[in-house]
Write a structure and sequence with these properties.
globular; alpha+beta; about 270 residues; Double-stranded beta-helix; six-stranded antiparallel sheet
Amino acid sequence: MNTRANHEIDYKIYGEEMQYVEVELDPSETAVAESGSFMMMDDGIEMQTVFGDGSQQQNGGIFGKLLSAGKRLLVGESLFMTTYTNTGQGKKKVSFASPYPGKIVPLDLQQLGGRITCQKDAFLCAAKGVSIGIEFQKRLGTGLFGGEGFIMEKLEGDGMAFVHAGGHVLSRQLQPGELLKVDTGCLVAFTQGVSYDIQFVGGIKNTLFGGEGVFFATLRGPGTVWIQTLPISRLAGRILAFGTYNRKEEGGLLGGLGNLLDGDGR
């Protein structure tokens, strides 16, 4: 029987396109989550705001906690996180929701080598004791062209962690030396055995007409990679383009009807 240093939590994921994860806590067990991910909880669970991620690895005094929490600003996260502790009798449940359409991916760090690197906005919640830090990609290509992948989050420990991704999510097992090229925005997470870099795709046609195909994230095994079909940046770009599109140019009966329904039938 494997023992964990992190809190051992049970969970269940509900929903299809807009999922949420329900975490079951035994007495004195704690889950930690980003601000804004909370959905609902049973009576008997106590919420507390903590500086940093509240993990037991942060034992370097106030300076160490300040440094660890300050790094989180680089990945667009808050200095603070919220803990949810079962202070009552019996099992209690707390639920966390995904912020946009997609899937929640459960990651058992004990079974995945104790460390996962993920996109900077992917983390949702975890068992207390899991450390949520940042991962600098040191290669020159990554630094110049990585964009979303330059500064990534790292999840360390032996507990359960949950990340969210857009659209459909697939996992790909890479053999030693096997190379996979992925759009930088479509990369969700990968295990520590996978090497990561950014590759420039040369050629004037690619540069002028390739759009998203100019740069790829290159992933070399061995290890597991999780890939999403709809990055939030791509979704936001489509919504913005639709919102600024002049509907009157659609023409015809359907275009006029659309403008009328939008309250723009002048």
